[in-house]
Inverse folding.
């Protein structure tokens, strides 16, 4: 939801479509939630399309323990005010790319199934994509298994297709998203904005901060707070200078007893392969917090 708020509030991004996939919850729930959020924000002129119901070749796993049974627990946003587009997500993205006179960026905040199928079916459209900014992966350790971050683990084969596609990529993995933190005082500031969106966002963050930040021993880059994972994939397109970014060769491990879903980032260039992905390692979190507050304040 906060990623969508940043995108729709931005004066530099034009949102052409929203597509959904199964991931944090089932497709039915994620699509319903996307349309509910947009209705609540007063956005009804952007198409929303359903994507894939499950990963390419694995059974679906969801994250109800973090985001609740609805996938958006913690507040009542009402009901959607419009229906999904009749096209499949892949068809909608294809149509937008074909008709656009300029390159289009794709922001991925869940499993990469839809985008992988788009690239596999329509490779000729790759040169119409300016970049794919994705939230997912980790250089040093996972949050679902010792090696795998959730979004990549759900569909590692799809992620592998995307990383091998040759399209410009920006990865916002756990190293940076665990530093994009909202604390209790920030939630209070969001609620104090005084609009309906601020109140609902604060309620959702109250739920999320309890579910997503258990006490644990972790590396220095893991900081306590409600981690703004998905918003990083939007924010890095708004101002890349606010992030510390390196360019490396990267790939996805799809087999192995312990390493399925591992995002293999060759930080020390041991494989001597050309870089294919920009990786964010750090960000200006004060700027990020202000960006979130300012974006929410733009809505009634």
């Amino acid at each position: 939801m906060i990623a969508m708020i940043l995108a729709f509030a931005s004066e530099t991004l034009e949102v052409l479509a929203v597509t959904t996939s199964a991931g944090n919850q089932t497709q039915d729930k994620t699509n319903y939630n996307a349309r509910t959020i947009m209705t609540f924000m007063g956005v009804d002129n952007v198409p929303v399309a359903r994507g894939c119901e499950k990963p390419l070749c694995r059974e679906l796993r969801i994250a109800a323990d973090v985001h609740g049974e609805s996938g958006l627990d913690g507040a009542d946003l009402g009901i959607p005010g419009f229906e999904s587009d009749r096209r499949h997500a892949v068809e909608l993205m294809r149509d937008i790319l074909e008709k656009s006179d300029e390159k289009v960026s794709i922001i991925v905040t869940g499993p990469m199934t839809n985008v992988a199928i788009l690239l596999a079916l329509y490779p000729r459209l790759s040169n119409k994509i300016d970049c794919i900014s994705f939230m997912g992966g980790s250089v040093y350790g996972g949050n679902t298994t010792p090696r795998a971050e959730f979004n990549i683990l759900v569909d590692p084969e799809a992620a592998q297709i995307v990383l091998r596609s040759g399209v410009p990529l920006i990865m916002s993995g756990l190293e940076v998203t665990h530093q994009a933190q909202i604390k209790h005082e920030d939630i209070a500031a969001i609620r104090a904005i005084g609009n309906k969106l601020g109140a609902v966002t604060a309620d959702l963050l109250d739920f999320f901060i309890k579910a997503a930040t258990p006490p644990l021993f972790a590396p220095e880059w893991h900081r306590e707070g409600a981690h703004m994972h998905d918003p990083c994939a939007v924010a890095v397109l708004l101002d890349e200078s606010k992030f510390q970014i390196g360019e490396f060769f990267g790939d996805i491990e799809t087999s192995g007893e312990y390493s399925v879903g591992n995002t293999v980032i060759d930080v020390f260039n041991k494989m001597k392969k050309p870089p294919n992905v920009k990786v964010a390692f750090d960000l200006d979190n004060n700027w990020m917090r202000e960006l979130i507050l300012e974006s929410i304040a733009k809505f009634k």
Notes: The mean pLDDT is 93. The longest strand covers residues 129-135. The chain is about 35% helix and 15% strand. The first helix runs from residue 2 to 9.
